[in-house]
Queue: 4 jobs
Job 1
Amino acid sequence: MFKYKYALLLFFVSLLTVSCSTDNAQDDDSVPGIDKTANLQGLGDSASHLLSDAEFTSMNIEIVYVNGFQPNQAALANFKTFLEERTFKPDGINISLRAVASSGKAPFSIEEIVEIEDETRTIYNAGDEIAVYIYIADGKSEKDEENKLTLGSAFRNTSMVLYGKTIEDFASRPNAPIESDIEAAVLNHEFGHLFGLVDIGTEPQSDHKDDDNKGHCNVEDCLMQASIEFGSGIIDEIEGGRIPELGEHCIRDLQAAGGR
């Protein structure tokens, strides 16, 4: 039983390993009266804007979820705390939720997620408020393999997706972490990529890049670690209901880019 539980939790960590390391989408979509340009940039391009109050003093996060996949309130509370601890937003961070019908496109390519964002996103940067879009899908990523699944991907400077069906299915397995813990870990991990971690928009202040996994950290126990060794350091945290946190090297990177 112990070996099975250990392998299962290592597998959970491997899901974070594949999230958004290669997904980066840009386009020139425009709508009369709405300037989307600032929200259609590359992954990590708005890291300092998300972290500091130099240009944007507040953050507005729009979570669009497919009916039946509303995120857990405990996960959202942890997510908001994570953002408040790492950013300077004196006018606050607002998170709004909105349900939509299924697109019927699962399993999803990142291009299809981009199309869904174009159809369902309603909030863009305005004045001194920066806007972020999060989509919670009712299916899996087309990149999934038998022993490697994708829980989420950050793909534009202010855009990310969680694969809600994958998270739900994994949480239902015997001895898996509870769903709210998985959701919180993925939300925080993917937003770490929007923050430009690791070396995808935010310059590293020390040598902690994982050379084998682009955009990830090689420091044990860090939220942004992607290697399989990360599992041995996170098991107790997940089992105890504690969400993994950023390590000091990643925090220093964010502080140098304007964050806390």
Job 2
Amino acid sequence: MAHITPSVRRAYRSAKRQGFGQSATGRGLGLAWQALGWPGRLVLGGAAVALALSVLAPAHARNNEDEPARLSAAQAGAQVAPSTSSEARAAAPVAAPRPAARPERLAAVQPTVATRPAPEIKRGPVTRLPIPRYVSLKGDEGNVRRGPSLSHRIDWVFRHSGMPLRVVGEFGHWRRVEDRDGAGGWVHFRLLSGVRTAIVQQEMVELRSRPDLNAGVIARAEGGAIVRLGECQPDWCRISGSGAKGWVRKAAIWGVDPQEIRD
């Protein structure tokens, strides 16, 4: 509490001597106020004002002291807020880039074509040549035996020089062969030749100037005739014999595989 001045104390003692505060009625208070006189009233009023100021001043001072703190806090918050927002923006996940627009026309899907593995070529244990393969009879006569040796009996004899044969087996110096009818046996390898021939299977086969059914006819071959085999395409082969040469359908002769190609 603020310090009370000596004048206030003197006024308080004078009022007390004149009965101020001894009566609880309003009349006693009025008489005491009148007894103070104008100097006492001024002193008492000034004391009351000083007392009021001393009571209210601390609260007002505290409010004034708190105001800078509140301002500082607000300013600090204003300074921190952008930093917090920046950190929030930095911590926020970066949006994935928008995918490109789908093209209007998609590339056609190419069908997967399954490729067949090439068939394994069987080879003879002696010559390492493919089996089966085509050969021809070298001489005018060839004995066909039941087994791969001279001790085996002769089943029959081939008597057409250049006759086409197909080798289907090997053993030592012997080759197992068969003709167009599937008949055969074992023949010594010296009786065979690598020259390719064919036998005409149809009567009066037309030999044409080129591999085309509309091409001109050069000659005609009789059925059973043995001819020399030349170039072969998928459906045509070129043959020659008796001075004539031309193209025939592959199906009209025996001595070449249907899928065989020759240059």
Job 3
Amino acid sequence: MRTTSNPAFRNLPSAGYGGYAGFGSPQQTVGYGGYQQAPPTAAERPITIDDVVTKTAFTLGVTLVTGVLSAILVLGHTVSPFALTLPGLIVGLVTSLIIIFKRTPSGPLTLTYAAAEGVFLGAITGVFDMIYPGIAWQAILGTFGVFAAMLVVYKTGAIRVTPRLTKWIIGATVGAAVLMLANFVVGMFGLNMGLRDGGGLAIVFSLVVIGLAAFNFLLDFESANEMIRMGLPAKWAWWAAFGLMTTLVWLYLEILRLLSYFRE
């Protein structure tokens, strides 16, 4: 497994599975004496690309539903944005840590994470849309546009995920994270690095971060494909869905921030 900056994909099992899932004839297991054993159950059969697509789409759907409901409540002044963002953030963070450190794919946990992130993102989006009408749809379309573009790039092989490219993406991502942390820390002391104030440097930095998030999709796609090549059980599609969702959330927030700069 190649290294990736996404913590979800860094905890995959490295042994005990083999074969290619979803390609060729179904795998069969032969027991002692040459007798064929019963076919594996859905939970035990090898993961396929259809599993990843289905679970990711379902996870994303949950996020969209809770996000829309959350945004409606905020825009209708029914609930305070703070009353939704804080619980959504905490539940999403705690659930993601459980998934990562538990190191076992779980549909309920993944969907809980998706629902919490939907509440969190919906509340934030509602606030942004009140200040900058129409920005929500622009951010959503922009996010899916970047995701689709990077999927095409990966599938066509226009950019190959080589070890060198992987190291560059990870290094740049860590560097950007350090800068954002430093900007947050100095901001607590009343200082300004200019990375998040809406100025020219902030716009450039936001574009760089969006680019990094886009390239991280390539690593996510490669990691999901590696899971298929390893022949992991089908339940690991939930793990792939969780990993892709974390990058989608990151990308959406950064696009929303960038769009707000151009509205000021």
Job 4
Amino acid sequence: MSRTDAILSRLLALHPKLIDLTLDRILRLLDDLGRPQDRLPPVIHVAGTNGKGSTVANLRAMLEASGKKVHVYTSPHLVHFRERIRLAGKLVSNRQLNAALEHCERVNGGKAITYFEITTAVALYLFAEEPADFLLLEVGMGGRFDATNVVEHPLGTIITPVSVDHIEYLGSKVAGIAAEKAGILKRGAKAVIARQTDEGLAAIESEARKLGVTPFVAGQDFEGFEQNGRLVYQDNDGLLDLPRPRLAGTHQIGNAATAIAAVRHFGLPVSDADIAKGLQTVEWPGRLSPIKGKLSALLSPGQELWLDGGHNEAGGGVLADSLRQMNARAPKPLVLIMGTFANKDATGFLRHFGDEPVAVFTVPIPGDRAAWKASDLAEVARGLGLKAGPKRSVKSALEAAAEVKGARVVICGSLHLAGNVLALNGTPPV
């Protein structure tokens, strides 16, 4: 076990629950740390169910294209914890991370606090100690009572598409979930809202009115769409004809448009050329990413290997739509390799694919959290009319997929599984 993992194991034992949504504990620790949340560079706070990380990645790429130094906080990580904390453009070093973890552990003094709360305090402490031009701060879960919601005066807030996820904590109604996400809105801070369902948007706008905030809304105030292989963005300030985002998938058009809307609505120092460069250089591993290396070598010539960490019903929908677009351009038989956690709606995820997969191979997810058994997940897939069978591991599933000539093989269903895949492949995020 590494030093980092040993510290994180101790922190995990400080609270009996992994998630316990309230701000009391982190505010107490931040006070004891000297209130680092008051010493941050301008903050852009991002909540939503899907697309948070991709929107943040696009924004970071655009700001860095303009020469700005950017702190970034995202979760979860895929392979190594330090992926969550980017200091002025670079992942935090193991030395810096361990020192900050141990400092916050000492200051906390063994008091009850959840893993995400204390590690968020660590991130804020690090961000306050190193200069940067901006901080992109991604919500972990919900918004109103998320540990990141301690910045009183952000430069701006963003809410990406809201759908049903984490129902045991946020409920099963989109309106209620959206209202919780809208808890990050702040009086005096501009807000950009990605395209939402009618009920989701109504809930967000209701929360905004209470704060005197007039949100900048996709479909009303700005729009982004693909045309002739390009991204066209339009708002009241004019139209931009831009390169298509480097990130694959039709949903990335909306994520990129949300990031561009933030650049323009928040008045960020980013030129149109910087926006274009950011779209061409953005990276966000594990989100419909092509995989090359040890695992792709298990497939047959002419096959493709892709990885996507989407894990809820909406994630299944955007993945299925993106794969249909791929297939329209370059037809290939589709094979899914899927693993997901037991609290996820596997039926909702898979139903979006119709009868398009020629095979679904289900796999377990290594680790402590409860995951669907591969046999049970295969039964769910068969109940939808899919040809499905369980496999012992990702490697054995790939070996089975290799028998489908010319297939497009997609590993999907979980960011945790995506991290396992990248580790197996020897290609962790850097």
